[in-house]
Write a sequence for this structure.
């Protein structure tokens, strides 16, 4: 039986490898470049290049390119790729020998760790760097070829226009205008679209797509028995109305929002510092779920997350709780909470917020302009600090703490100020009574010389009953006192106290990204290439509300394109633009630019409704294609760039875990919302399992869950041995197999019917004759040999099969 399971797992690994290779290496490469630009280059610029740069080369060493690092100087090569322990740079920054750099003071532990990682991953250094003697003049003004006027011709910066729907030869295939755009390209490339997917395949695909869960057997049968033309539309509408829809698509958005439930991981423990932990993060996660389920228009979804605290209070409410909670998008950032350089902490917070807003809503890598003009896109150094002024004029931290100590996050009460004031007053009174009780108890005990229990001695020493009166007063007040107010991680107007910019203000350019070298002050505004030269000045508040409204405007050429591309990406496995976080020149151009604009214009016309766009996409013929095509069609488009078939996709980490629980009828779908579950084996949906930035060891991470330190545009699909070992050996998988076995043995006594029911439950289809024959032979052989293997082993093998973890 073990051989059968190993063969099943080998199939999974092969298909996973194929899918991973088909994705290409672009996004991964860009992530490495981004790591260098954001984590390594600032260290070199601020701490190293004054002595080892363009003007100076102490010890013959210039830290200006990968080749120069490998060449080294008087002491030999600067580093050995992949081997931090053998690299001179690491030895020097760790002060392990006579060579100690920088000489004026050791780097922080975090900076050293980043340099070690840089060496360990092979010294990546973007090849687009300028030569060592190049001018630092703006890249946008070096020549006519790179002037902004030329850059504006790049497709994503042009206004969105509603294109004409193309005519096609095969008029029978399209179900909608979406199909006409797709078919026009297929016909231009000589590709015939795939046949329609079999109905069982289609409902399984749609149910996982919209809810992240497998369809129930009765749902499949109802769809198969519905012969009306609207049968699939009914399925889609039912799934969109399910609360599971918001839970599934919230996970996609949380990947983009670099969401985490915790920094340290584990449970909230008594005595643990709450200054920097993310204990209230789940409220943002639940807000996303609720917003998606009620189909909050996407333009409002944007404004809430950037400036929800500045929105008017809803009618009849004293506090805009939704608005405050939504700004958790900005507050749940990945920065070093215990960094010794507190000014750098604030700069990193601002950079993180610019980065997630730029990638998430605009599909632009704005943070690449922190140290210099963007290398590829017409985003200048001044554009970056014009945006930085908006976020420097906003705070998510109330106390930066001591050097090396934790920061204190801003937590806003979700109740009126009067409630907070009264609760604090009552809490102070209770505290005062507790102190009095403690002091009087100590005095009474000291007076007593009687032997016996402490309580008896205290009572005997209190003939006037003063202690009893205090205790009764405390008990009465404690019963009537207001509970502590509910809090939310949020942002607030005004700069961070103890920082360089503690108020609402414009900020100067940071030369080479360093707050220690400031240039001219830049008025707060939006990137010129998108918003123009003549913008209304920001004169009131931080400017976040104006920024949010500008991003959410129908006139912004990027916003609608970016979100409809994300929807397409998660339905098809690839976007029309295959770099969803980067619509700039270093990103992938759209395969179907006219279709992308058509979707964007329809999305705006439909009131920015995500559910309406889901429905449009899923009712198209292109979505309802099979994944299998002829060898000839496959050869014409191996990467499926023209969408002539559906991409087979592996379930993601959360879907795999939820499918295992669903198959065993273990999943408790009523356990929704609230603080995250630490134990990965609890029967809640995986959305509610804790994501911790410093604990990346659970089964969700094993199957490529998003890295909460980064805005994740698309999860990689890795193929590693521990994934196979998890299915083969982990007690969690065996537990589900045992439960399924017990359920089937109790409900289906006939062996043949039980085999068929196992296939229906796990794969959404009846067992084929050959599968029934093989299963029967297996059980007969085991019985004849006296082996103890049985239904648990058989069901475990089915769970290990590639069909369980792939959808077509």
């Amino acid at each position: 039986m073990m051989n059968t399971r190993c063969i099943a797992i080998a199939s999974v690994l092969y298909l996973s490898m194929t899918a991973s290779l088909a994705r290409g290496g672009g996004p991964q490469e860009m992530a490495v470049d981004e790591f260098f630009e954001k984590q390594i280059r600032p260290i070199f610029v601020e701490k190293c290049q004054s002595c080892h740069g363009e003007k100076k080369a102490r010890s013959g060493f210039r830290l200006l390119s990968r080749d120069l690092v490998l060449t080294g100087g008087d002491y030999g090569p600067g580093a050995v790729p992949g081997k931090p322990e053998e690299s001179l740079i690491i030895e020097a920054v760790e002060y392990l020998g006579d060579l100690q750099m920088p000489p004026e003071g050791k780097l922080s532990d975090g900076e050293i760790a980043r340099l070690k990682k840089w060496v360990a991953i092979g010294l990546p250094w973007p090849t687009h760097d300028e030569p060592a003697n190049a001018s630092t003049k703006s890249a946008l003004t070096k020549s006519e070829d790179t002037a902004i006027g030329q850059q504006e011709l790049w497709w994503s910066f042009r206004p969105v226009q509603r294109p004409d729907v193309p005519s096609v030869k095969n008029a029978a295939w399209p179900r909608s205008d979406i199909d006409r755009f797709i078919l026009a390209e297929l016909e231009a490339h000589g590709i015939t679209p795939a046949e329609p997917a079999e109905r069982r395949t289609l409902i399984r695909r749609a149910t996982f797509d919209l809810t992240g869960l497998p369809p129930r057997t009765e749902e499949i049968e109802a769809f198969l028995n519905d012969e009306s033309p609207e049968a699939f539309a009914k399925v889609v509408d039912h799934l969109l109305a399910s609360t599971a829809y918001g839970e599934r698509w919230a996970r996609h958005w949380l990947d983009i929002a670099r969401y985490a439930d915790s920094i340290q991981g584990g449970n909230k423990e008594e005595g643990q510092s709450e200054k920097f932990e993310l204990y209230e993060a789940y409220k943002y996660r639940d807000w996303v779920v609720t917003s998606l389920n009620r189909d909050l228009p996407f333009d409002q979804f944007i404004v809430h997350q950037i400036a929800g605290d500045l929105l008017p209070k809803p009618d009849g409410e004293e506090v805009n709780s939704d608005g405050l909670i939504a700004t958790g998008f900005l507050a749940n950032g990945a920065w070093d909470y215990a960094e010794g350089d507190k000014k750098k902490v604030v700069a990193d917070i601002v950079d993180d917020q610019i980065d997630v807003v730029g990638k998430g809503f605009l599909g632009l890598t704005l943070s690449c302009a922190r140290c210099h003009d963007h290398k590829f896109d017409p985003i200048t150094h001044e554009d970056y600090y014009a945006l930085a002024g908006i976020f420097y004029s906003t705070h998510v931290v109330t106390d930066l703490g001591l050097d090396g100590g934790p920061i204190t996050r801003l937590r806003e009460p979700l109740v009126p100020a009067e409630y907070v004031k009264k609760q604090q007053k009552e809490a102070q009174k209770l505290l005062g009574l507790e102190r009095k009780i403690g002091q009087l108890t100590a005095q009474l005990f000291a007076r007593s010389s009687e032997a016996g229990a402490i309580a008896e001695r205290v009572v005997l020493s209190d003939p006037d009953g003063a202690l009893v009166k205090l205790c009764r007063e405390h008990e009465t007040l404690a019963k009537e006192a207001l509970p502590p107010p509910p809090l939310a991680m949020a942002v607030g107007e005004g700069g961070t106290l103890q920082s360089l910019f503690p108020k609402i203000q414009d900020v100067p350019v940071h030369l080479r990204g360093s707050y220690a070298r400031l240039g001219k002050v830049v008025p707060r505004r939006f990137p010129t290439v998108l918003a123009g030269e003549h913008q209304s000045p920001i004169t009131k508040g931080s400017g976040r509300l104006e920024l949010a409204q500008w991003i959410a405007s129908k006139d912004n050429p990027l916003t609608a394109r970016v979100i409809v591309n994300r929807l397409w990406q998660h339905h098809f496995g690839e976007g029309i633009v295959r770099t969803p976080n980067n619509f700039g020149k270093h990103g992938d151009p759209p395969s179907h630019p006219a279709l992308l604009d058509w979707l964007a214009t329809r999305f705006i016309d439909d009131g920015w409704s995500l559910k309406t766009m889901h429905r449009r996409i899923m009712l198209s013929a292109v979505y309802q294609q099979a994944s299998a095509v002829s060898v000839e069609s496959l050869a014409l488009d191996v990467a499926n760039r023209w969408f002539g078939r559906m991409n087979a996709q592996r379930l993601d980490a959360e879907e795999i875990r939820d499918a295992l629980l669903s198959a065993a009828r273990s999943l408790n779908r009523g356990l929704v919302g609230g603080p995250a579950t630490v134990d990965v084996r609890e029967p809640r949906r995986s959305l509610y399992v804790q994501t911790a930035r410093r604990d990346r060891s659970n089964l969700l991470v094993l199957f490529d869950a998003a890295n909460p330190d980064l805005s994740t545009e698309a999860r990689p699909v890795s193929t590693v041995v521990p994934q196979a070992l998890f299915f083969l050996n982990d007690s969690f998988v065996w537990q589900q197999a045992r439960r399924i076995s017990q359920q089937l043995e109790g409900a289906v006594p006939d062996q043949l019917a039980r085999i068929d029911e196992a296939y229906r439950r796990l794969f959404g289809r009846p067992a084929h004759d050959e599968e029934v024959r093989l299963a029967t032979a297996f059980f007969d052989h085991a019985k004849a040999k006296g082996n103890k293997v049985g239904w648990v082993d058989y069901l475990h093998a089915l769970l290990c099969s590639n069909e369980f973890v792939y959808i077509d």
User: Anything to note?
Assistant: Residues 1-30, 129-152 have pLDDT under 50 and may be disordered. The two ends are 27 Å apart (CA to CA).
